[in-house]
Amino acid sequence: MKNIDEELTEVQKLFSEGSYQLALRKINKLIKNNKQNYIVYNYRGIILVALKKSSDAIKDFQKTLELNSDFTEAIGNIGMAYHEMNYLDKAIEYYEKAYKLSGLVQFKINLGSLYLQIRKNKKAIDHFNSSLKKDNRNEYLHQLIAEAYIRDVKYNLAIEHHKIAVSINPSNPKNYFLLGSDYIWSGDKELAVKNLIMALNLDHNYYEAYYALSRVQNIKITDNLGKNILELNTITPLSNRNKAFLNFTLAKIYDDQNDLINFNNHITKANLCMKNESKFNYSKVREFLGKIKYKYSKKLEKSNFSCEVNDKITPIFILGMPRSGSSLVEQILSNNELIFGAGELSSIHESMSEAINIKASDKEYTSILENIAQDYYDRLSHITDKNYVIDKLPLNFYWVGYIMKMFPHAKIIHTSRNPIAICYSLYKTLFAEGILEFSYDQDDIIKYYQLYKDMMVYWEELYKQEIFELDYESLINNPEQETKKIFNYLGLEFNKSYLEIGNNTRSVTTASDLQIRNKINSNGVNSWKNYSSIIKKFTNEFNSNSQL
């Protein structure tokens, strides 16, 4: 007959395999026969958190403490349950209490993870660094702090910690994948390829690594890698996400070989897989944008409200439809020593998306905006000490009026481009999970584009004089002339050397990470025409002289 330790080992094995229901059944049987054993309640609580039953889990953790008040791990686990329920103040309270009583570094790490989740990067990094002083050989901790540094646009530090993670656990393919991704963003293709191949040598089924590798190395369908990808793609029980990785990879391979038929076959399958996972709902997005306009017109448009200006930092928002050339603009501008290219910061979009749904009086609402603005300034000052900071998150087009109120001295550059080129570029690109979920269906892309146009018409009617309109094709055809206009708008002196974008060694984490390493050229301006037979919905929708 098995003793309780052996039974708990089996529960733990089931849990680690993701078999939560089976683990729950087994622990329930153990509790029936061991009602005074505090450990079994703690185990069940952890399983219930994984099953999204955190209210029940808290009861088990409290029972654990009733049976053994010295078992402070249960206090931290209560924090974990509140964290899962998104009761973040409660989670912080219990994590801090557990760490104070136990000194266990895991609770300090949990605090850091929570602060990372709520965009408090500085606090997250402080907690992670404090944790490293106690446990500097914690692989997961190095992965976490690297992620925090990536969000803070400190890529060299991210690479440093991903290298340490590799040294701690050289048998984990994820460590090489993360390091390879770092090198893609920093423009070092050779080291990117080296690390991605290491990841694949350790795990031949690392689907995401195949896709990343295809972006930095030409893979032929006849070589071993190509054959392996084709074979993996025949496996039926793959998740939609993994099928998408493989089919986007195959689409890239066939695209490089100018095989339009096979490219179309795989890009269609890839997008269908992502569409099946997508949560995009056109009606909800339209309703949300309508709410943004309504609240602005009622609460802010005619008010004298504006936030206090931070004289040390001038935000430069480059916004518009994704894939409209914002990365190129950022690369040019950040060649100026006064300007820092921070990439796509999610702070404003995420904070405002939460704030717009809050029911509040006018006074409470303006206070919320003031807090968002101050948090944003704090983040920018933590990232860099330069006077001008670029935030090129395209979806900030949702918030133009709010930005003008929160940052009265901000500069806004609206990039536009041939809509067919934009839509085609979106359709052939795999974005990070949960990002731009409208981009995997041609009809969805068209509908979203129309929402974007409608939103920008609304803002331009209010702020036409404050917004700099930049046409991507004009920038490509007349880079010096158009860039001079931008610098004039910014109130800064233009230098022709800013156009040498290949000299800009900053890391870039967007879908344009590889293209902007090259000289400004017109190669991609009309590349969509080669695919006109497979993007007829786009060409039919936008193919008029007024829009091209």
Describe this structure in words.
The chain has a domain at 313-419 and 440-542: 3-Layer(aba) Sandwich (Rossmann fold). It has 26 helices and five strands. It has helices at residues 4-16, 20-33, 38-50, 54-67, 73-84, 88-102, 105-117, 121-134, 139-151, 155-168, 173-186, 189-202, 207-216, 224-232, 240-256, 260-277, 282-300, 326-333, 347-355, 362-383, 400-406, 419-427, 442-463, 472-477, 479-490, 536-542; strands at 314-320, 339-341, 388-391, 411-416, 467-471. The radius of gyration is 26 Å and the shape is globular. The N and C termini lie far apart (77 Å).
List keywords for this structure.
single chain, mainly alpha, Rossmann fold, five-stranded parallel sheet
Rg measurement, Å:
26 Å
Q: Helix share of residues? A: 55-70%
In CATH, the architecture of one domain is: 3-Layer(aba) Sandwich
Distance between the termini: 77 Å
- What oligomeric state best describes the polypeptide chains here? single chain
Strand order of the largest sheet: 2-3-1-4-5
What is the assigned CATH homologous superfamily of one domain? P-loop containing nucleotide triphosphate hydrolases
Concise structural overview:
The chain is mainly α and 548 residues long.
List the helices and strands and how they pair.
Blueprint: H1 4-16, H2 20-33, H3 38-50, H4 54-67, H5 73-84, H6 88-102, H7 105-117, H8 121-134, H9 139-151, H10 155-168, H11 173-186, H12 189-202, H13 207-216, H14 224-232, H15 240-256, H16 260-277, H17 282-300, E1 314-320, H18 326-333, E2 339-341, H19 347-355, H20 362-383, E3 388-391, H21 400-406, E4 411-416, H22 419-427, H23 442-463, E5 467-471, H24 472-477, H25 479-490, H26 536-542
Parallel strand pairs: 1-3, 1-4, 2-3, 4-5
